[in-house]
Amino acid sequence: MKNIVILISGTGSNMAAIVRAAGRQQWAERLGARVAAVISNRPGVQGLRTAQQAGIATAVIDHKSFASRAEFDAALMHAIDAHQPALLALAGFMRVLTPGFVAHYTGRIVNIHPSLLPAFPGLHTHQRAIDAGCKLAGATVHRVTAELDHGPILAQAAVPILPGDTAGALAARVLTQEHLIYPRALAQLLQTL
Ligand code: GRF
Asked: Which domain does 17 fall in, by range?
């Protein structure tokens, strides 16, 4: 079985979309894959409860408990590697990863970012797209490389930016697309692993 480990920091709606797709599309039977674990760097977040309700193993590696980024990364890698993942999916995971961490998972680590990369890497993507006068916004699933929000693009979806849009309204519109493209991109990738 190809194990998928998902890293989250909060609500975990992308994680939940992946879990739902894996069940609905019978990834275990069709792709020989399953979501083996959900790991959060923040305790008590909604995504952990959602995963537990779905019967998925969870863990918390709280970055605040570690004196250095290197120690946090080591603990996180230890927790991830306990599940021997074929694929590591970042889903709203809000920590910058070190080059050593990324190198450890080369070829099997992906992320979803709420912009049409290479436009707007980093934070506050929706407000920045509105401020720039963009007519389209969207989301990108990409392979993770050492450079933040870069790496080969696997899937994208675009949505219109409407007159009077707020960052919140745009984020919600983009998020519905994220929930479609992330599971689809992972399923495609799993077929190649
Ligand atoms: C998503 O917009 C994701 O692209 C971004 O953070 C948000 C996380 O949402 N990196 P959720 O935790 O998956 O609900």
From this structure: 2-113+139-156+180-192
